[in-house]
Amino acid sequence: MTALPDERRHRVGTDARDAGVVAVWFSLLLFVLVGLAALVVDVGTWYLRAQQLQRAADAASLAAVVHWAHDSEAHDVAAASLRTNGVDPATVTFTGERPKAHHYRVTLEDQAVPTFFGKLFGKNAITVNRSALAEFVVPVQMGSSYNYLGWSDKTMPLQAASGVQAAAARQNFWLAINGYCMAKEYGDRYSAGYDGNGADTCFSNEPNREYRLYGYTFAVKIPLNSGPSTISIYDPGFCATGGIDREARTGQDVPLTVTVYEPDTADTPTKVSDDAVRSIEIFAGCDPAQQGAWVDLTTVSTSGTYLLTVSTDSAEDSFGVNAFALRATTPGHGPKVCQAQSNDCPLVYGLTDLSILNNIVSMAAPTGTATATFGLAHIDSSYAGKQIVVDMWDPGEGMNTIEVLDGQGTPQPFTLYVDTAKVSSSGGTQLDVSACGDSYSLPGRTGNCIYNDKLVGLVIDIPPSYNPGPTEGWWQVRYTAGSNTTLTDRTTWSVRVVGGSVHLVH
Known about the structure:
- This protein is α+β, with helices and mostly antiparallel strands.
- The chain has two domains: 116 residues, Pantoate--beta-alanine Ligase, Chain: A,domain 2 (2-Layer Sandwich); 364 residues, no CATH class.
- The protein is 16% helix and 32% strand.
- It contains three helices and 25 strands.
- Helix 1 packs antiparallel against helix 2.
- The relative contact order is 0.15.
């Protein structure tokens, strides 16, 4: 049946109205879709800006925290780091602050992050905030709390300043460097040229991969009220006496080069490459005038921390052990031993590691066992809640046990690693070093004790509540051996904090 004109007109009107509804809904949906797209763009823009600010704040706080002694320098370094990482400090609100010692916080606020969707509601920009807090773990001071380091001479008694016991200042070890041809198994971790070359042979198919031409680094901290201070070295020339008080064995010359640097103005306390050289002294061989005597290196009149390096050459004719000591004297105390916590006494200490000759002619107990202690490191309250690693290279041969004592003389439990492999996490406090025999022998080595030519790592947890006083916190190493034992252990120790010296806290 043919539709009437009125019916056709009705359907046409309905279609038109449907099309209008669709157009309205499409317009509304398009508006929502555009708004959602704009919102996605807004969120992405905010997120990218927040990421950029966070990365810049992280980098700036890490760069600035090493300048922990100078707020203005820290602020300038942080600002420069921001620019390097694409954030102009002039276009954001930039705050640098030191909430507590050895920390630095960078806070960034950008109040002009543009919007797209927000413009529809009259919001042209939003504010994005980010911050980062970095911590600088002060390098561990190794040795002792006095103005002497590496003093073990029984024939030259030390005089002590008022309130100081001279016996306490004697660390029972010499600082020492082996000649290039002394195999690494003889106890010098970094100055031996070879590993596994045996006795008196300056050749091996195993070069020492840890060899360092610059030797060992020490620090002399001169306080504000000390006056002109003289830095000296004891018995620097190598004389092949064979005596255990200084040279452990005969051999060719082990020359020393001693370089003293100007105060560390760059706040990089373990580096010398950015410090100006103050003086260089080369002790090429045996000089009778220096044997058993102090030799002055330099006199300084400005307070600060002076780094110095002691090294030997890489000549392939050197088999001896050159042992020495360091000190800093002042007008007020002269050559007397003084306690470095006083405001007029220098502090002489090792940085990162100590290469030493533990030297006790005879451990005193006539029967049973005898003990001897050696200065290790200053573990102050900034290490609370952290882990420290006491590394010992080739330690304790001929002894029974080794312990690490805190500032109160309490043995500390440790997790044991040998050559970086975990051996025990029992939490014991004694390292048994007594085992020797063919079962411990390594190819190309002359020693056969359990830790000969091996790296022993003792990982120690510092309790969060650890809080020694200003004059406390000096830890020690204790050796235990049989009665009337002659001790001449040549070893290298280091103390480091797990996680590195500079890191983000949050």
